[in-house]
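queue> pop job 88
queue> type: inverse folding (structure -> sequence)
queue> payload:
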């Protein structure tokens, strides 16, 4: 199965602490890196996680609060110092380019690469990126300013050749790619060999959903239904439910109930309030509603599997 790994670079909320960095994570799909949010300290955590800067092509920003985007400028500057030449694409709600361009014009007058901004309307769901490996769809959220999450959906894998069968039927090499894509094989004698005789189904397409700052929304549960892994903010414990409503955030129990309703494979919670010296109470409250829940922490690496996850050590070993 092709690589699909999530690395947590930051899972704290707005107020800085010595325990957690602000929001950021990287999704590795077939050795292409996709960054999701970019709070302060992101590039340092990328170093610690031994992520290859050159493989980063796209950054997805959920909203324009500082704890989700203040790390962008430093990262862009570092990539310039490293001599990057490939384009960097930044996808965000409207307004980010207007905020950043004056600073780029002043501090990065001789960028070695292009920074391309792709604004989108955070109030509606839309496909904002698609390539041969994956597509990304926005998940409208309800926060104090335009905000959305992201649904990452892997492209359906090609069928697997049954070597003994293609050899038996003497399928030419030049036809095997079309066979993997689902074509039947017609022999020189005109006999049709059905594709299911020559192949087995490809690997299931995996899905990952990132839900940033928001009040709990039924529409989110519908959009992320059945994903293999869901990251959902869980800023507060149940005792602070009133504060969560006031600040347009979610409690751990609310995130877990949403995950249960959506029948996700696994729930990962984060974006912890700085008031908690330990996140174990948040985990306990979440697991009371949805047992398949894990706490996010910096350096956590997760291999995403169909309806399951595998926790990896920092060097990628189980």
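queue> result:
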């Amino acid at each position: 199965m092709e690589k699909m790994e999530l690395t947590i670079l930051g899972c704290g909320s707005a107020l800085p602490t010595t325990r957690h960095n602000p929001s950021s994570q990287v999704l590795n799909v077939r050795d292409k890196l996709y960054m999701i949010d970019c709070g302060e300290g992101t590039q340092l955590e990328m170093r610690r996680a031994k992520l290859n800067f050159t493989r980063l092509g796209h950054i997805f920003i959920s909203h324009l609060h500082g704890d989700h985007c203040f790390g962008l400028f430093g990262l862009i500057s570092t990539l310039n110092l490293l001599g990057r030449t490939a384009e960097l694409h930044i996808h965000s709600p409207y307004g980010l380019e207007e905020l950043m361009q004056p600073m780029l014009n002043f501090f990065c007058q001789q960028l070695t690469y292009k920074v391309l901004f792709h604004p989108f309307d955070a109030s509606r769901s839309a496909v904002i990126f698609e390539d041969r490996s994956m597509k990304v769809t926005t998940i409208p959220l309800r926060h104090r300013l335009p905000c959305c999450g992201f649904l990452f959906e892997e492209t359906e894998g090609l069928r697997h050749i049954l070597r003994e069968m293609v050899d038996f039927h003497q399928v030419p090499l030049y036809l095997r790619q079309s066979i993997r894509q689902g074509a039947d094989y017609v022999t020189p004698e005109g006999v049709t060999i059905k594709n299911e005789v020559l192949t087995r189904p490809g690997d299931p397409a995996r899905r990952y959903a990132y839900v940033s700052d928001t009040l709990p929304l039924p529409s989110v549960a519908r959009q992320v239904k059945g994903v293999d892994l869901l990251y959902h903010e869980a800023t507060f414990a149940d005792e602070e439910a009133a504060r969560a409503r006031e600040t347009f955030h979610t409690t751990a129990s609310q995130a877990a109930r949403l995950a249960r309703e959506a029948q996700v494979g696994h729930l990962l919670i984060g974006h912890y309030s700085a008031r908690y010296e330990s996140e174990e109470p948040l985990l306990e409250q979440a697991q009371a509603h949805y047992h398949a829940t894990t706490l996010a922490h910096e350096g956590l690496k997760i291999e995403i599997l169909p309806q399951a996850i595998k926790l990896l050590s920092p060097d990628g070993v189980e």
